[in-house]
Write a structure and sequence with these properties.
- The protein is 49% helix and 0% strand.
- It has 93 residues and is an all-alpha fold.
- Helix 3 crosses helix 4.
- The longest helix is centred in the N-terminal third of the chain and has 14 residues, at 5-18.
- It is rod-shaped and about 90 Å long.
């Protein structure tokens, strides 16, 4: 159970005195309950997640956001900025 021998002996003696006719399995259960009653181990806490840093908005996202504010689709805003080429009509069939 991860206990030092001296602590285990004291705990076992106390549990045996409280429950003299208990089976080995019951004694282990009583010891486990006693250990859990004291609260969680200090190292059993989960680390807190790191605070998220805000990422800078990329140029593409900025162009799309500006276009959306103007009521345009993302494709139309990127086309006006010269990033996306207009479709080749009549060639791709």
């Amino acid at each position: 159970m991860g206990l030092a021998a001296d602590i285990a002996e004291v705990s076992a003696a106390r549990i045996l005195a409280q429950h003299p006719g208990a089976s080995l399995l019951e004694l282990v259960g009583h010891v486990s309950a006693e250990l859990n009653r004291d609260g969680p181990r200090p190292n059993s806490r989960k680390p807190k997640p790191a605070a998220r840093r805000e990422q800078p908005i990329s140029q593409l996202a900025e162009i799309v956001a500006t276009g959306k504010a103007a009521g345009k689709t993302a494709h139309a805003a990127l086309r006006e900025a010269g990033i996306v080429a207009p479709p080749l009509l009549g060639i791709a069939r």
